[in-house]
Amino acid sequence: MPAQQKKIIFCVAGVLSFACALGTAAAVGTQRWVRGRVLCKTGALLVNATGQELDKFIGEIQYGLFYGERVRQCGLGGRPLQFSFFPDLLKVIPASIHVSVVLFCTVLIVFALVGAGFFMLNAFGSPYETLHGPVGLYLWSFIACSCGCLIMILFSSEVKVHHLSEKIANFREGSFTFKTHSEGFASSFWTILVCSLVHFLNALLIRVAGFDFPFSKSKDSGTVTGAVDLMY
Fold first, then answer.
1. What is the pLDDT of residue 42?
2. CA pair distance 110, 21, nearest whole angstrom
3. Strand, helix or coil at 160?
4. Banded model confidence at residue 219, pLDDT cuts 50, 70, 90
5. DSSP assignment letter at 56
6. Hey, what long-range contacts does 150-156 have (CB within 8 A, 24 or more apart)?
7. Virtual CA dihedral for 186, 188, 190, 194, nearest 10 degrees?
8. Which residues lie across from 80 on neighbouring strands?
9. What is the C-alpha separation between 125 and 170, in angstroms, rounded?
10. pLDDT in tens, 73-111
11. 4-17 burial: b if 16+ Cβ within 10 Å, else e
12. Taking every pair of C-alpha atoms in the chain, what is the biggest distance, in angstroms?
């Protein structure tokens, strides 16, 4: 492939990596990871609410990785409440999973920036064929993509398996019990998915630029070495 086309491909990949770093940083700071509705089960059972009457006992909830807010609905009007994961909710949520999600988000941002820098270095410089070159580009893209996948898996398990929304809704609630009525992942969660796909796309762009995947030549070199041994 001509050098000019390689430069364009690496520039595009570098811009995409930098955009992913900014997008991930923005997603981490928002509370748009999960949106849902929470039912005040105790209040609904007391008045035997059914049909449209249940709407008086269903409140909204949304949260991110650090903070969130919900509207407490128990039949007497909504009362907005704000909450913070650190340090308030650490005793009621799976803290190890939640902290891991935050750490992997940090790693994703760091390696997205590292990948963006090395893509630009390969576009405008003459790097060595080591971690500065195509091997490094594959490595940074793979790590960033893997971190994005781990973030989605861990956060999904925290929300769905460990019923995170219910634990938040029942935090410091004495006589009332809340149950998740509906919930879904919001824009910040899907931003992580897009970033993971972009880093996978960057790996494909490296291959399009004419650089083989790491270790793809090992079999060929082994065959050549074997043939040379047979000659002697």
1. 86
2. 7
3. helix
4. very low
5. G
6. 150/100, 150/104, 151/101, 151/104, 151/105, 151/108, 151/192, 152/189, 152/192, 152/193, 152/196, 154/97, 154/100, 154/101, 154/104, 155/33, 155/97, 155/101, 155/189, 156/185
7. 160
8. 71
9. 56
10. 887 777 888 999 988 898 899 999 999 999 999 999 999
11. eebeebbeebbebb
12. 92
Cα atoms in the 13 Å half-sphere on the side-chain side of 31 = 13
The beta strands (E) that lie in the chain are given as 34-40, 58-63, 67-73, 78-84, 178-185
Rounded CA separation 64/98 (Å): 11
Residue 96 CB partners (closer than 8 Å, separation 6+): none
Residue 74 has a pLDDT of 82
Residue 223, pLDDT above cutoff 50? no
Element (H, E) at 148: helix 134-156
Closest by CA position to 139, among listed 115, 109, 110: 115
Q: How many CB atoms neighbour CB 215 within 10 A? A: 9
Tokens at 124, concatenated: 């405008």
Backbone angles phi, psi at 68, to 5 degrees: -170, -175
- Tokens for 69? 């807010």
174 in Cβ contact with 167 (< 8 Å): no
Question: Is 178 in a helix, a strand, or coil?
Answer: strand
Between helix 3-28 and helix 187-208 the angle, nearest 10°, is 160
Residue with tokens 């939640």: 98
Distance of CA 93 to the CA centre of its chain: 19
> Rounded distance, CA 87 to CA 99, Å?
12
